[in-house]
TrEMBL record:
GO terms for cellular component: membrane. It comes from Hipposideros armiger. It is found in: Membrane. Its main location: membrane. Keywords: Membrane, Transmembrane, Transmembrane helix. This is Transmembrane 4 L6 family member 4. The keyword Glycoprotein does not apply. It is a multi-pass membrane protein. The chain crosses the membrane at residues 12-31, 46-67, 87-114, 157-176.
Amino acid sequence: MCTGGCAKCLGGTLIPLTVFGVLANILLFFPGGKVVENNEHLSQEVWFFGGILGNGILMLFPALVFLGLKNNDCCGCCGNESCGKRFAMFTSTIFAVIGFLGAGYSFVISAVSISKGPKCLMENSTWGYPFHEGDYLTNKDSWSRCQKPENVVPWNLTLFSILLVIGGIQMILCAIQVVNGLLGTLCGDCQCCGCCGGDGPV
């Protein structure tokens, strides 16, 4: 597969992951599927917008750039047919790094939240974090320490796990595009400016 086609494939994969990440983050504002009475009762990590910012906004631009590389007009740059395409591929590596950092941000936030556990109404009638260093992950009985919101533990655990997985996949895809973009910068694209059909490789 040529570098432009590979980038388009990566971009097409990133788009649905971006949407799922944003949706997962939005659902975190409704623990247990319910509206909270006080926003201060939400876990701190929810307000870091890992899914909306990291998996979403910072990933949307790279995804769109990757999708557009396949049809990029690479001809006529400074009299060099391959110049435009090579520059576009180099630019894509910059966006890929931005996307990698965004996905990494969401990944770290999700990992911290999973280890920390959700904020909830504890047995002493105060709001806080009753779990420590992920001890609740192997002890489902301890979930009863959270009295409200109902089902907040599985809710947060599921959604942050989804964000964790999405972030990991996005990081891998962006890393692939960094390599692919550098190859495209150095070697050009095999379908650029009449290649595979007339003028030879660029």
